[in-house]
## 1
Amino acid sequence: MSETHRARRPPPVGAGLLLGLGLGGFLDGIVLHQILQWHHMGSSAGVPVDTVAGLQINTLLDGLFHAATWLMVLIGLVLLWRAVRRGAALSSRALFGSGLAGFGLFNLVEGLVNHHLLGLHHVNETVPHDQWMWWDLGFLASGVLLLALGALMIRTAPA
């Protein structure tokens, strides 16, 4: 069968999910950890942010977090490249939607695991302690919204 008559493969949703996970993590780390300095990876887990030693440990943990998100983006790019080389259909809607879904998945997993289960940190630790839960719940809600919007875009993308 010729190259032009071969059936197209479905869009690379898995690649988009990984790209969204990684880019969502980058946005979280850059904006919440570094620019706004609302929290660090271990700031609620007994690693102080008001001492040089504590800040060094938190900076290391933040760096490891960024390394993990960088790997997600790298793997997502490799999967996207391989899918395109194998004839995957390229739909901007499906790729953007899977990226949004991945970003939402990041917020859900990171929020549930780090904020609620492990208590490593909370979204906004600059507000009074009794308000932390509202920021954490808002973070989870943003994850649900992004995941739902991304899934809708994937479902309605051209085949």
## 2
Amino acid sequence: MALAYAEIDYQHREISLKNKPQSMLGFSPKGTVPVLIIDEKVIEESLDVMKWALAQKDDDNWLLQDDEVFQMDMQQLIILCDKQFKTQLDCYKYSDRHEFSEVEYRDQTLWFLQELENRLLKNKFLISDCISLADIAIFPFIRQYAFVNKLWFDETEYHNLKNWLQNNLQSGLFTCIMHKHQLWQDNE
């Protein structure tokens, strides 16, 4: 979404994680996605790709350049998501691979949903009344979370979070990037 927002022209290649092309692994030996290749530079983390894109063009100030307090809050929320929530989300999504039940893992994530809900009680977006990098960085994980058990999620009392998610899912920015891409093959 950050690449589209920043109007970065790029060639998108879909990767089968079960059959990673050797040519892709040549650029990024750790074999994770996304990978952004710019000339000789390789960027291998989603957040770093987003920050790079926004450094190129950020007309709506997603990086909150004019407010150090908002910047700090944004960074802390993204770190909280990356360091704690994402690990718990993986256990929830793949509970059959772990020791406890889906419900037990889901219960361990509720603190983060409540954090986001509380923020959205005060603001239209996660940090302020303007969209920021935090919204775009966290949105994919809440999207994944919601679809683990959509019926349960839809019945929760996190009304502001559900509205925020729905608004992101219906945004022109999201819909313009969500289409199938050709798989990257080694013969390309």
## 3
Amino acid sequence: MTREELARETASRTGLTLKEVQIVLVTFLDVISENLCMGNSVFLRGFGCFSSKMGKARRVRDPRNDGVMVIPARHRPVFRAYPDLRDAVQNSLAVKVSVAFFCIGYPKAEAVFVTGDFNNWDENDCPMQRLPDGSWFTELTMSSGQTIKYCFSIDGVSKPDPAYHSDAQSISTRQV
């Protein structure tokens, strides 16, 4: 996305004119640049941090005379994304996989739900189906490459996954 495309998208979302958005965008970028040039960092809560970092001096081959030349250390602008942004990018771009959850050992339960950090621990979000053998099953689509924390809500009582032996923990973890 270019600066022009960013300005157009922002104008369409906010109702401001394109010219107003372009002025704000250029001013915003100028303020960040000025602060980095003064050695300050710019922190945008929930998004990331712009700062400057001193790079290392390095030796490289001199293409003019096949010798070696030294490139001196220099300041470089860097951006460090905060976890909210990193997680949002990962969740939207990661390969989606189906994750099966089985809850065994509660054939007389009325209702079983799987709850965890993937659904903000909402106890009514992911109901499970009772299978003929008395076990419970559900399949959810999640982003691959993450470790999830979860437990089962069995008739309103949170219990760890009985398939994973956890010492007095009420939360199980699994790599997706």
